């Protein structure tokens, strides 16, 4: 088993800058992400999409391709850490790579052990530096506690929270990401699933890994204000025709309220609220939990297609 503990001081990235996702239909992607409540902008004469949340940051590029897959994942770090990060990435055995066409060519480009293309560069901290308050206020006596359905406003996520990748070797993945870019283990369940955070102030998970026969893209999670908005997001997507997914419920590892909506290619986008937060420089009591006690505290049963990697050989989106 790889050593998942970080020995000695180590530089670390502080945020995800953005992800780039290949999809077989830009038009289908635009419909899905607009229904989800994101700011979808067409660029390159409509051949590419950019996704923004209410914070205005460009969180994703959606690119045309024959099939769905992660094109690359870009991380930001502090300028003071960049040289050490470069040394760590080399020492971890990363395979050097070139920037793909259309991407920012700055920083360091390399492949992880599964072949995922990664970028590390100097950039702004997009992850939160403190835990946002989560307050659901109940109505007092003689007052209505909810608005009518016609008064419910469209849910627009505030920011990207985290991403989850399929990997053939979860333990190898958490070891590599710790040695190369300083991500810390938050919690895991055997060699089935693991969650990692950045040590400069981070949600419980910035990047997570789930076991599969092949690499793949599982989901992106988008932060909303409270559990009510998680449920409203689910209803919003169902009204738009996107009824497949999982939720609403509450996770155990990360503690966040969730609702996952399946995209047209078999992966997911998650409405997430009130995820655990690890303050800068603070230790987190990483645990190893039994599978039956690690995925959700309450909610509907996990659908059979939730853990299907549609990028694995022989798999399909449905």
UniProtKB/TrEMBL annotation:
PROSITE patterns: VOC. Residues 15-123, 159-274 form the VOC domain. PANTHER family: GLYOXALASE DOMAIN-CONTAINING PROTEIN 5, GLYOXALASE FAMILY PROTEIN. InterPro entries: Glyas_Bleomycin-R_OHBP_Dase, Glyas_Fos-R_dOase_dom, GlyoxalaseI/FosfomycinResist, VOC_core. It comes from the Bacteria. This is VOC domain-containing protein. It holds the Pfam family Glyoxalase.
């Amino acid at each position: 088993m790889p050593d998942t503990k970080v020995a000695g001081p180590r530089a670390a990235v502080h945020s995800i800058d953005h992800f780039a996702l290949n999809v077989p239909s830009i038009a289908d992607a635009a419909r899905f992400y607009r229904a989800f409540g994101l700011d979808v902008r067409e660029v390159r004469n409509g051949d590419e999409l950019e996704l923004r949340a209410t914070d205005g940051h460009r969180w994703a590029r959606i690119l045309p391709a024959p099939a769905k897959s992660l094109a690359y994942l870009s991380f930001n770090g502090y300028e003071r850490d960049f040289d050490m990060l470069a040394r760590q990435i080399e020492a971890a055995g990363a395979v050097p790579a070139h920037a793909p066409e259309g991407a920012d060519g700055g920083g360091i480009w390399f492949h992880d052990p599964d072949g995922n293309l990664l970028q590390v560069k100097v950039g702004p901290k997009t992850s939160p530096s403190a835990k946002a308050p989560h307050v659901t206020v109940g109505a007092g006596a003689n007052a209505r506690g909810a608005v009518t359905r016609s008064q419910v406003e469209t849910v627009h996520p505030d920011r990207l929270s985290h991403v989850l990748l399929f990997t053939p070797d979860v333990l190898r993945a958490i070891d590599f990401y710790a040695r190369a870019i300083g991500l810390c283990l938050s919690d895991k369940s055997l060699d089935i699933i693991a969650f990692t955070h950045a040590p400069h102030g981070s949600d419980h998970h910035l990047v997570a890994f789930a076991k599969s026969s092949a690499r793949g893209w599982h989901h992106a999670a988008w932060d909303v204000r409270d559990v009510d908005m998680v449920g409203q997001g689910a209803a919003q997507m169902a009204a738009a025709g996107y009824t497949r997914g999982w939720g609403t419920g509450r996770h155990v590892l990360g503690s966040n309220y969730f609702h996952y909506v399946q995209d047209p290619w078999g992966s997911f986008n998650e409405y997430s609220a009130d995820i655990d937060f690890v303050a800068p420089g603070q230790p987190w009591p990483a645990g190893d939990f039994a599978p039956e006690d690690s995925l959700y505290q309450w909610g509907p049963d996990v659908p059979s297609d939730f853990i299907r990697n549609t990028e694995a050989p022989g798999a399909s989106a449905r």
